[in-house]
């Protein structure tokens, strides 16, 4: 099945998960993430701010600030495939961010006051969204290539990729996915199973 058709199928499937189920399962996934040794050892962590059909990351954000982690969030440039990971200072800081056309909270592109992870040593860990995954690390994103491009840039500039951890509902973990040569494999898939 072509990537675009599979994206449509996965979006329909995710839309069928009730808000109550999404909240309960997101808390389970969040607990698994924060109990994971990779998370515990990491200091500079990027986490996505959830869209309505994704694993809710607010519990992870709360834990990150409690655990004194340095928190970075994506800032997408919707006119290109560029994405920065910029510093988020607190939960209050998050609540004051503007919303994008995708209804995602993110710092404005002209906000140059935020620390950019690529300019200050990179990241230890990236918590990643997606539409579908396999247990062998394949990931189907939303088709813009933001995360693959970021990982490629991180490796080019800093000589290494951060550890990648995808957050998924069990319905999103499939046996196989179509992959292209530029697609990065994910190191860990954390699901509610």
Provide structural commentary:
- The chain is α/β, with parallel strands linked by helices and 193 residues long.
- 32% of the residues lie in helices and 20% in strands.
- It has six helices and nine strands; from the N terminus they run αααβαββαβββαβββ.
- The strands form two sheets. The protein has a six-stranded mixed beta sheet. A three-stranded mixed beta sheet has the order 6-5-8.
- A hairpin with a 4-residue loop joins strand 5 and strand 6.
Features:
193 residues, alpha/beta, 6-stranded mixed beta sheet, 3-stranded mixed beta sheet, 6 helices, 9 strands
Strand line-up in the sheet with most strands: 3-2-1-4-7-9
User: What class, by secondary structure content?
Assistant: alpha/beta
Strand residues, percent: 15-25%
Q: Which of globular, elongated, flat, extended, rod-shaped describes the shape?
A: globular
Q: How many helices in DSSP terms?
A: 6
Taking pLDDT < 50 over at least 5 consecutive residues as the criterion, the unreliable ranges are: none
Helix content: 25-40%
Main β-sheet, in a few words? 6 strands, mixed
First-last Cα distance? 25 Å
Q: How many whole angstroms does the radius of gyration measure? A: 16 Å
Find the count of extended strands (DSSP E, 2+ residues). Answer: 9
SSE run:
HHHEHEEHEEEHEEE
Mean pLDDT: 92
